[in-house]
Amino acid sequence: xxHPQTVxxxxxxxxxxxxxxxxxxVRASCHAVAHRPVRLAEAFYExxxxxxxxxxxxxPPDLTGQMQKMSDTLLGxxxxxxxxxxxxxxxxxxxxxxxxxxxxxxxxxxxxxxGHALTRAVRDVSGQGYxxxxxxxxxxxxxxxxxxxxxxAQAAESETSTADQSPIALPQxxxxxxxxxDPASRPHDWHRADR
Length: 195
Prior knowledge:
Layout: H1 20-34, H2 37-51, H3 64-80, H4 87-104, H5 110-126, H6 132-163, H7 178-181
Helix pairs in contact: 1-6, 2-3, 2-5, 4-6, 5-6
């Protein structure tokens, strides 16, 4: 089974919006998953922590709320994919990626683990309905979602690194010198009212 190898390194411009047939296949599989979204999330986190145990520390001990959020977000994103204009979804995904980067320190390389865990979880929940073409469809959709999330994360990272720079040092006032007090040594002041 193939999996995304470069997820998290592609920009949204490099990952086209999935074709209508791909979106339709993923949406159809979501109908089967919609009856047990928490099972999808459970399988997702099982696979994620099996592949990348170091990521477990990024999550709360009780994943109940997180599982519901994950499945709601994923199913919501897939539901919006077939709209004519995905600009609103793209903005939401970028914000989500920025939030994951700044609040949870999600790194670009984590998206590869997430992609693998997601496709395996969909396989587990889909049972015999899971085919090679469905796997490819989920990979295409995930790559598109991840490209927008990583773009948001990169933008947040660059904003943070700019904000974290040391403040510009302002010149310190100098002690007055004797020639500062001599009116003949000062430049002509064209704005004085007595002229």
